[in-house]
Amino acid sequence: MAKKSKIAKNEQRKRIVAKYAPRRRELLAVLKDPSASWDDKRTARRELDRMPRDASPTRVRSRGGTTGRPRGVLTQFELDRIAFRQKALNGELPGIRKASW
Description:
Largest sheet: 2 strands, antiparallel
Distance between the termini: 33 Å
Order of helices and strands: HHEEH
Number of strands: 2
Number of helices: 3
């Protein structure tokens, strides 16, 4: 089980990313636009730099849904590898079976 503080901090980052996402998308569109003037791009870059660090989606860590484990996460199931294996062996995941050949 991961520390509660790490899980809480990651949830806070998710909220911050969601809050700043529309504005961030607009500024990035200005930067990628080839017809935008140099001054517009410069002001867009400055505004992006003024945003909080945690507004970037790359700061969010994928964690297992049940344990909060940061590594070995299967994003399709939102479970870490250990919890996934346990649930699969218990038959709690429909359509998932242990391979045998």
